[in-house]
Amino acid sequence: MSSKFIGRAQGFYALASQEEVGLLMAMNFAFTEGKYNGSTITMLGRNAVFTKVREMPVIGGSGLFRFATDYVQAKTYKFNSTTRDSIVEYNVYVLHY
Question: Where mainly located (predicted)?
């Protein structure tokens, strides 16, 4: 909570599994501060929500992240089944030019 705000995660998800809670996620990490202001990193992949750590691919980006590639690891810290709110940590590993 004390970290500096540097951007937003923007995107959508859809159910993508019949057997478990699996989502198809399309997400942009949009930067609004510092050196990367105006740049984005784009992720698209399957998120098996109740798996401890999930890995999804980085498929591109814009600005300083043009031609980005690599992966994202997601880890859920808190999930409220009543409100469906959650706190998720995304660690982004990215190669770019």
Answer: secreted
Residue reference for tokens 């992966």? 71
How far is Cα 47 from Cα 71, in angstroms, rounded to an integer?
Answer: 13
d(CA 15, CA 94): 26
Contact 62, 68 (CB under 8 A): no
pLDDT in tens, 59-93: 999 999 999 999 999 999 998 989 989 899 999 99
Residue spans of alpha helices (H) in the chain? none
Please state the pTM of the whole predicted model: 0.86
SS3 84: coil
Q: What is the pLDDT of residues 18-37, one digit of tens each?
A: 888 899 999 999 999 999 99
